[in-house]
Design brief:
It is built from 12 helices and 9 strands. It is of the alpha/beta class. It has a 5-stranded parallel β-sheet, with helices on both faces. A two-stranded antiparallel ribbon has the order 2-3. The longest helix is centred in the middle third of the chain and has 15 residues. The radius of gyration is 21 Å and the shape is globular. Pfam families: Hydrolase_like.
């Protein structure tokens, strides 16, 4: 995932960008209600039709909604509408706290990722051990039967196994050759070795040198305007561990793909990195809609789907996701999908 820096040894940090609605939480329909409230405030009449919202930015949703409502020069009213949404942040927090819910496993995944420094390309990270030793340890995982190169992600009610049917499992859409597996495993072993202890001399030649661990930075990539994103997360106890200063939000651009670039620039600036520090798959985007997946792919990022919204795992795989999770309840599987 990472690339070598100018010196050829420093691995890139990783930027993980979470979608919010349908991925981390369910806001209980509060966002749609808020559109109706702001429209009445601005135009003095009720809103009769709403643009599709899933996976889109507020800028794009507002523009289409105003067009459907027959508003003259709709683009001229987008910024006032965004201001109207932002002004409702306090009311939204109360409503989300009452009607919304954090999705199962979301808080645990965020907490575990905050302590995930060493990236094990094959196995699962152990959040308890990572927290205990400062986030620098991982342990091996298992692959599903029948296809040793494809880690299996269990579906609801099923166990792992890439050759299964029905809900037995959703396979990660990526493969590692045996040589790659051995090389990356040996590299991680080398990192874990106490000082002065060498790897066995009979390991194959050509293994990559052990390098420093990579730090994980996590934030959000959401269609919500920032003030609303913050109150949703705060209302449901999901703000901890997220660096919201480096995220990208619905007011930043109509095109979700551009939000990936916005977040990369912000992360590089905040952390004093080069402009291209988070290019390519050094950025990971996780979301519940095909539009999340397409935005990641169009920006050259790693795309991880989670089938907790209105789209099935098959839809997310068809969109090109590198990995798909049935939900966030298995923290180790989440880390495997995000960081492998």
């Amino acid at each position: 995932m990472g690339r070598t820096g100018s010196g050829g040894s420093q691995m890139d940090d990783v930027l993980v960008l979470w979608d919010i609605d349908g991925t981390l939480l369910n806001a209980g329909g509060v966002g749609r209600d808020l559109y109706g409230t702001v429209f009445v405030q601005l135009f003095g009449r009720s809103l009769s039709a709403y643009a599709p919202m899933a996976g889109r930015t507020d800028r794009a949703i507002i523009l289409e909604t105003l067009t459907l409502a027959g508003v003259d020069e709709p683009r001229r009213h987008v910024d006032p509408f965004i201001a109207g949404l932002s002004s409702q942040a306090i009311a939204m927090r109360t409503a989300v706290a009452a009607q919304g819910q954090a999705l199962p496993g979301a808080a645990e995944a965020l907490a575990a990722l905050s302590s995930a420094w060493s990236l094990h390309p094959l196995g699962f990270l152990d959040p308890a051990r990572a927290a205990a030793d400062g986030g620098h340890s991982g342990h091996g995982g298992e692959f599903g039967p029948g296809d040793a190169g494809v880690p299996a992600i269990p579906g609801p009610g099923g166990s792992g196994g890439s050759g299964g049917s029905g809900s037995a499992g959703v396979a990660l859409a990526e493969r590692l050759t045996p040589d790659m597996a051995l090389a990356t495993t040996a590299t991680m072993i080398a990192k874990e070795m106490p000082e002065g202890i060498a790897l066995p001399s009979d390991l194959p030649d050509g293994l990559p040198p052990a390098g420093p661990s990579r730090r994980v930075h996590q934030s959000v990539l959401t269609g919500n305007v920032r003030q609303l994103a913050e109150v949703k997360l705060d209302a449901l106890g999901l703000r901890e561990g997220l660096d919201l200063c480096i995220g990208a939000y619905g007011e930043d651009h109509e095109d979700r793909t551009q939000l990936v670039h916005v977040a990369r620039r912000r992360a590089a600036g905040v952390h004093g990195r080069s402009d291209d520090a988070f290019e390519g798959t050094a950025t990971v985007v996780i979301g519940d809609t095909p539009l999340d997946i397409l935005a990641a792919l169009d920006a050259g990022a790693r795309a991880v789907g989670v089938a907790t919204g209105s789209f099935a795992a098959a839809d997310l795989l068809a969109a090109g996701a590198h990995a798909v999770l049935p939900d966030l309840t298995d923290t180790q599987l989440v880390l495997q999908a995000l960081l492998s």
